[in-house]
Amino acid sequence: MQCTKVIDIHDDLVQLSYGKVSVRSYGRYDVNGFHFRSAKFEASRPLAATVNSGVMSRAISAQGHETNYYGIIQDILEFSFAGNKKLKVVFFFCDWFDPVNGVRKNKYGMVEVKHNQRMRGHDHFILAHQVEQVYYLSYPCEKLDAWWVVHKVNCRERLFTPSVGGYEFNDD
After folding, report:
1. Cβ count within 10 A of residue 167
2. Do 44 and 109 form a contact (C-beta atoms < 8 A)?
3. pLDDT tens, position by position, 77-103
4. Domain ranges in the chain?
């Protein structure tokens, strides 16, 4: 008598195992209430009023220490996996600033990044839903031109609109 073990594998993992993947590049992508654009897309529009390619991601170590990583989106990639379900994952390909030697807090509590100090390695990809949007402001003086100030951007969520039943009417 032969014993066979039945392994229950999730349908999504089975679909991923097919190995057929298509990749599409985007210039802009909306997620978590933010409107992101790649640096490549923004370079093609030099007269744009805003810059939306700055990102920040939080990481917490096993000891509970939080590190913020700051970067610039170079490309936005959507990976689509062949199969019955629509399985798609969006990654941002980013250049990250060095979190050890390239990030500091000034005496006013503002975070600054040294824009020519980049993180080395191959960890350029991050899932789109794992980042927040930031904007980098340069200093007007030459003494501080190596540093940019980080400004955290508020997300653009839709406003809650109550139904007619949510209003109170006065006869006055």
Report:
1. 7
2. no
3. 999 988 888 889 999 999 999 998 999
4. 21-158
Enumerate the β-bridge partners of residue 14.
Answer: none
Q: Which residues of the chain fall below pLDDT 50?
A: 159
Q: What is the rounded distance in angstroms from the CA atom of residue 55 to the CA atom of residue 34? A: 10
Residue 40 confidence (pLDDT): 93
pLDDT of residue 171: 59
Tokens of 104: 């500091």
* pLDDT attached to residue 159: 47
Q: Could you give the CA distance from residue 132 to residue 152 in angstroms, rounded to a whole number?
A: 8
> Is there a contact between 115 and 146 (Cβ–Cβ < 8 Å)?
yes
Question: CB count, 10 Å around CB of 29?
Answer: 19
User: Contact 52/43 with Cβ under 8 angstroms?
Assistant: no
CB atoms within 10 A of CB 41: 21
Angle at 56 between CA 54 and CA 58, to 5 degrees: 175
